[in-house]
Amino acid sequence: MLRQPALLTLIALVGLVPSTRAQSADNIEVAAAETAFQQGRPEEAAQRLDTYLRSHGDDAEAQYLYARVLYTEGTPVHDARRAARALDRAVEIDPDNVVYLVAQLEGQRLERSNILLDLIRARRRYVIAQKILALDSTNAYAHEELGTWDIRDYYQYRNAISLPGLSFDAPARGRNINTAVDERASQGEVGIDQTGLAIKSNLAMAESFDFGDANAAYAIDRFNLDQLRAQNVGIVTYETRARNAYDSAIGHLRIALRSDPRRRSVYDHIARLAVISGRWADATPDLREMYVQFPTDPGMWLYTGLAAQRTGRYDDADAAFAEALRLMPDAERAVFTDLALILPPDEVAAYRADPDVFAQRYWTSRDPRFLNAVNERRTEHYARLVESDLLYRSEALGRAGWTTERGLLHVRYGPPERDVIIDGSFAQAVETFQGLGELFAGNPPGAGVAEQSANRFNVWSYADGLRLAFEDPNRNGQFRLYSPPAYAYALDSARDPARMDFVQIAREAVRETPERYTYVPQGRQIELPYRVTAFKGQGARTDLYVNYGIPLSDAAVAGADSTRTRTGTGDVNLTIQTGAFLVGAGRDLLAEHRRTIYGLRAAQIVPFAATRLWTTTEPLEAPPGPNEVSVEFETAGGGASAVQRRAVDVPDFSRPGLQMSDVMLAYAIDRTSAATPGRVERGGVSILAAPWGVFAAGQPVFLYTEVYGLTPRDGRTDFEIEARLVPKDVSTGLRRLGRRIFGGSERGVASTAEAQGTAPDDSADLRLSTEGQPPGLYTLIVTVRDRTTGATADRETDLMLEDPAGATP
C-alpha cells in the first residue's frame, strides 16, 4: 500500500505561519536560512539557524524552521532527535500554535527506534491531538490521529475475551480454582464497568471442579474454547467497548476527510477499519471520494477491489485489481504475482523455473468457476494480500503485512471462521505443566506470574479443524506463533507439550495443505446431481459424457402444466447458462462445453419424490489419467447457481484385451437416428441419461454400455451381457466378510442378452424391470463375457429405488 510519509506533512506546513518579524539583522539571518533551505542547501540553512538559536533560543518560528531542516531525510544534517527537541521548544514558546502542534504530532511518527518507544510516542500523539482539537475542532491531522487510536482499541477488543478464573495449577480433587476471582467479585472488582466490559456467562469454573485423575486437567486442549466452555469457564467480553471504539473511529476519520479530502493516509485507515469490522457499506462513500481525489492511485484500486470481492461482486473486483496492478511500480506488482506465497514448498523451484507458464496453469486449476471470465480464486488472493497488509503491517518494524507470521498465514488460508484474542490469566494456564512448581522452588512467591499475565493470545480456528495460536508477550500487537517454553518439554514430556507448539503445527499445515479456499456462489445455491461416464474415443482419447440435472422449484414450473410437462408439451420459461469443463493433471483447461439455453424442454424433465430434474448432458474429450470435471450452472441474473467439481480417473480404452466402458444409467433408450436435445446419441440409440441414479420402484431401469477388444471367430464376435440389481450390502465387519466368502440370499432382479457382430468393439443396452422390488439402495452389477475366449469384464454402480407414490406430480 502507498502511505504518505509524515515528512511530507512537515514540508507542506511551510509558509502556513505568517511572519510578524521586524526587519532586523537577526531576522534577515533567519530569512537567509529559509531561502537556503528552499533552494536545496540544507547544510547552510542548518548552520545559520544553529548559530542564530544560540542567542535567540526563544524564537519559536526559528525553532520550527530548524526542525524542518533537520527532519529532511537524505541530507548530512538529518537528525530526527534534534528536530524533535526543536519542535518541542517551539511549542513550549507558543503552545497555542496549531501548526507547531501538528508538526510535533507528525514528527512523532518519523523516528522509530524500538517498540516500547513507539508505544510511548503513540500515547504522546494522542495527547497532542487532544490539544490541537481544543484549538481547532476540525483539524484533519488531529482527527486522523484519534481515529487511528480508536482503530487500535477496536482491533484489540472487537473479539477479545478474558478468562479471569482459569487455572490448571491445582490438580487436586475438589479444589476450588476460582478463589481469587470470587474475592475480586466480592470486592466489586469484577462486573460491568463504564469501559463497556461485560460478563457473558459464569465468571468462574464450577465451584468444585473435579479433576479426578491428576492428568485430566492437562488433557484439556488449552486453546480449545469449546472445551473450556464445556468446563463452565467464565467468559468476559468487551463488546460495548469495541462498539464505542468503532463509532468513535469512523467519526474522527470522516471529520478528517471533510476537513481535508486530499489527506491520503485517512483512506488507508478507512480501509483497515472496514477489513477489521467487515462493514463495507460504511466504507463505500469514503472509497468513492478516494476515487474522486486519487483516480490513478493503485491503493485506491486495491481497496475498491477488496470491497467488491468481500461483497461478492467478483467482476468488479477483477477489473479493479487489474487496474491496480497496471498502475503499480514493478516491485509492488511482483508481490501480487508471486505464487511462492501460497505454493507448497516442494513446488516453489518449478515455479521459479518458468513462472509465467506455471502461474497460468496454477490459476486455471484453482479457478472455481469457468462459466465466467473472472478467476475468483485469483482475485481472492489479491484481496488477502491487501487485507494482510492492512491488518498486520508493522510500521515500527517497517514490515509489510504479508511478511509477518499472521499475515502470511492469512494469505494462505484467508480469514479464520473464529478469531479470538484472549486476555487475563490465560497465559498462566497454558504454560502450567506438572513439575513447574519444582522449577520455581525457592523463588519468591509469584515469581514469573507478572510476565505470564502480560501475555495475550490470538487464536484462529478454521472450519476444517485447523487451529493456530499466536502470542503477544510484550502486549504491543506484534503477535507470533506460540510455542511452549523449553522447560515444558523437560518437565512434562509425557503430556506432549508439542501439541501446543503452533510453530510446528503451522509448518506441517503448510506442507500438507498449502492454501485453502472455498468458493461461495452468489444467489441461491443448488446441488447438481451428476455422473461422468467414459467411453472409447478416437485414437487414445476417451469420450466423457457429463450427465447432470438441474432441480426445478414449483415456481419455475408454474407456467407449465404438470400433465403437459410430463408428456413433453409444456416447456419451462427459464434462461440458464451451463457448462462442463475438464482440467488435466498438468493444470491445463483441456476441454470445455458451455451453453446458454432459452427455455427448458419439458421432455427432459423427470419427476422425483423430492424434486423435478431437468436433465441434460455435455460431451467432453479427455486423455486417460487423473483429471477434474467441473459442472456449472446459473440462471439469468444470477438468482440461482451451482459449481461442483470432482476428480475423475479417465480409463485408457486403447489397451489390448477385453474391456468394458462405464455403465450409463438411463430413464429411456430409443432406437432412432434423429438427434434429440439433452440426450446422448451413441451406438445407434438415443439415451435420456439418469444423472441422479434414482428411479421409481416398479419402473424400468435402462442401461447402456460398450464392449471393447472382442475376439472374432470366423469373422464374427459373440458375447453375452448380464445385469443384476441386488440390494446394497451395508453390512460391516465379520458379517460382510462372510457374505463375500460364502455368499448369501440376494433378492433382486437380473437381465441377460446375447449379441453377435463383426467388429471387435460393440455396444449393448438393457431394460431391467424392478417390479416387486421395495424402495431402497441397490447395487447394479453388469458383466460381459466374450463367448469366444471366455474372458470377462464387469462394472458396478449404485442406484436407488424410491417410493413412486411420493414422486412430484
What would you note in describing this structure?
The structure is a single chain. With 809 residues, the chain is α+β, with helices and mostly antiparallel strands. It contains 28 helices and 27 strands. Helix 4 runs antiparallel to helix 5, helix 5 packs antiparallel against helix 6 and helix 15 runs antiparallel to helix 16. The radius of gyration is 36 Å and the shape is elongated. The two termini are 59 Å apart. The N terminus is likely disordered.
Oligomer: single chain
Overall 3D shape: elongated
The overall strand count is 27
How far is it from the N-terminal to the C-terminal residue, by CA? 59 Å
Percent helix:
25-40%
| Fraction of residues in β-strands | 15-25%
Class inferred from helices and paired strands:
alpha+beta
Rg (CA only): 36 Å
**What would the average pLDDT be, to the nearest integer?**
82
Widest sheet: strand ordering: 2-3-1-4-5-6-7
Tally of contiguous helical segments: 28
List low-confidence stretches.
Answer: 2-9, 11-23, 167-220, 434-452, 561-569
Largest sheet: 7 strands, mixed
